[in-house]
Amino acid sequence: MAGLEELKKKLQPLLFDDADRGAASTRLPFPEDTCDSYVVSDGGTVNLLSRSLGEYNINEHGFHKRSAGLVESDSDEKAYRCASHEMHIFGPIGNGASSVVERAIFIPVHRILALKKINIFEKEKRQQILNEMRTLCEACCYPGLVEFQGAFYVPDSGQISIALEYMDGGSLADVIRVKKFIPEPVLSHMLQKGLRYLHEVRHLVHRDIKPANLLVNLKGEAKITDFGVSAGLDNTMAMCATFVGTVTYMSPERIRNENYSYAADIWSLGLTILECAAGKFPYDVNEGPANLMLQILDDPSPTPPEDAYTPEFCSFINDCLQKDADARPTCEQLLSHPFIKRYLKTDVDLASYVKSVVDPTERLKQIAEMLAIHYYLLFNGSDGIWHHMKTFYMEQSTFSFSGNVYVGQNDIFDSLSNIRKKLKGDRPREKIVHVIEKLHCRANGETGVAIRVSGSFIVGNQFLVCGEGIKPEGMPSLDELSIDIPSKRVGQFREQFIMQPGNSMSCYYISKQDLYIIQS
Questions:
Q1: Is the dihedral of CA 101, 102, 106, 110 positive or negative?
Q2: CATH code of the region 360-519
Q3: pTM higher than 0.70 for the full model?
Q4: Residues with catalytic annotation?
Q5: What's 38-165's CATH class?
């Protein structure tokens, strides 16, 4: 019992609210943005209203932000066209405490994205949406942060989807699982720009720095994600006083529920880097979060063994994990730390390192399946999205069919439109369904993918898709189709594609295509 009472005493700031503490609370005012209210209009638009952020209007067609200034000329408006019907959604990347993240392809530009879905009906989650969109839409092209592509609301699900850059290398947590640890030179080169931007340009405390929120791509770029609990500070002297984020990486002052500022992120960064270097979390987490918090408060800060790491690395970690927040360095100071300087002239190929973590065969198969399914969903889809097929080709692209070769966007699109029209016939209510039975892929050059597909296509007007499982709507297997085959026109197809990355991030185009059709 004595141990329990001691635990309650030390963690009292976390177990009781401000009203219970009364005059004992000495927290400073904190200008954190709060989502005061939300309105869902009859037309399916969500209006998220914030005291300091203005108004966010989100519907099925995209996202519009308006921040009203004291005078009309100070008003700031931003709009992102990113509609729900312009997405082909695939399987999940992962699940968080408050969201689900899925792979998707943005149809107009054939871009692979990460789609983060959050329910709007809980106030806490609405606040997370505002925090995330505020940070990302105001820094949509900053190299240290995941790129923001827009957002939309789907009334039927009650979810807002935030479209983000797809980081195909996963997180540092994924890297640790495969590699067991990350070498010092790699860590040093990854520690750039992101935190400096959050702290010194945007005046943000992230409040949830951890390996799972530091993402990498196959180009070797490291970026910060998950700004749902980040907080804005008016200036470099302001401080926070809220208890949010992952307990595992919280600084001592946050556990005590004291005022905190940028130094809290420095503590989390120190734990994160030490975990990445050692391959395991520095504290014992087997006895639960309360015991972990007592360790952070009472035990000496973890230190890397000097015989296993360079003196510069040990110094870097020790500086980050000072119990006294005022003793921790700033981001600017860390970026000029001897640990960073030590490896500045060291040739570190981050792209090759990240590629060594990812299973190249699995990644290639994943991309090939998404792009092939995306193509057939466009081919089978409504006339309203068919025009987007044209942008799937470049002027140098070639398409071969029935002994003819077509070159360039216009000729290829016209040829495909004619094929599509002939297959569907003159009955406007009929549609095409492609059923992929075999798909093979291989690498094509450094970054391209060659795809060979075969299967059946069915033309008719009544299809019932059965079965369950995660797959894009409209791409069934034969086992999942309840169809009256005699009343349908059925054929077989074989198709080969070579797809290459486009000029824009995560966009693909078809450089070469061959189609063979056998219609019964």
A1: positive
A2: 3.10.450.50
A3: yes
A4: 208
A5: alpha beta
